[in-house]
Amino acid sequence: LRSQIVANLTNKGYKIPTRIQDEAIPQILKGRDVIGLANAGSGKTAAFLLPIIQKLATQSNRDTVLVITPTRELAQQIQTEFRVFSDKMQLYSTVCVGGLGVRPQIRDLRRKPHIVIGTPGRLKDFLKQRELHLENTTTLVLDEVDQILDMGFLPDVKNIISNIPKNRQSLCFSATITPQIKRLLDEMLVDPVKISVRTSETGNHIAQDIIKAGTPDEKMVELVKMLSQDHFEKVLIFGEMKHSVQKLADKLSKMNFPAVAIHGNKSQPQRQNALAAFKNGKVNILVATGVAARGIDIPNVSHVINFDQPQTHEEYVHRIGRTGRAGRPGQAYTFV
């Protein structure tokens, strides 16, 4: 990697690559198509961003990169990492996502950024409006493919891909490969290298336990008991419904357990403020619907609590994967 990228990594305290980085980066630099199977917290964002930055920095023409993600939070997280890794390299990115103003995003697109990171719906809108030009796109990244399909974005994704030149490099990352995902990958990848660094369904370092509570009141009593213990340092609580998530955060705050909430009814700035408060330690409890589990990287979450049970096993795996990041121990509790 170029000396400036290495310097940027050193400044951020990155010393040793994770397994997915170690295995994927050389293949991506060779120009191969890649399927990366990795648990949450495995460092896969850097696994595709670092070689992409290397390639963008060494090219003389203006080839561009498109990264498609399921949620706006993940898109913004990828942009944050891109800016850190490409610092002082004159490489520009823009995020195209719903829930934020259209005009600033169009303005950024017209500046011809090197990398566009976006969610399928907004990308499709910009294609229709002829604001997004993909004829010079030489690298396509699909991140969290399983979530993109779970959220019903397959038609949009196919529409976007049909506008990208066939002669490109495609990189796909997913926690799982279902038959539907396999069909999509077969259509869009050429002779891909498959890299699997999945340890187990949830990583062996996340201790999992259930808590029996019959009524909502009993659940609340048990939850307060848990949160009163010192080692519950940074707690992510999952609920099923938007209104119940907000209600729970408000209730905990009134009981002297300062909490913030993120869910679909909040505006993007409100969601970002809540995430920032939790990340920076201003509050140590975040109550969220499943949307927060989609790839969000919050360091040092000590406990995940499923206050409401997730609907599917995949959702469960995604939720508890918010703790025990980068191999650290974590603890997950589920109320039944």
UniProtKB/TrEMBL annotation:
GO terms for cellular component: cytosol. InterPro entries: DEAD/DEAH_box_helicase_dom, DEAD/DEAH_RhlB, DEAD_box_RNA_helicase, Helicase_ATP-bd, Helicase_C-like, P-loop_NTPase. Residues 25-195 form the Helicase ATP-binding domain. Keywords: ATP-binding, Helicase, Hydrolase, Nucleotide-binding. The keyword Metal-binding does not apply. The keyword 4Fe-4S does not apply. It comes from the Bacteria. Residues 219-336 form the Helicase C-terminal domain. One of its GO terms (molecular function) is RNA helicase activity. Belongs to the DEAD box helicase family. PANTHER family: ATP-DEPENDENT RNA HELICASE RHLE, ATP-DEPENDENT RNA HELICASE RHLE-RELATED. This is ATP-dependent helicase. It comes from Candidatus Magasanikbacteria bacterium CG10_big_fil_rev_8_21_14_0_10_43_6.
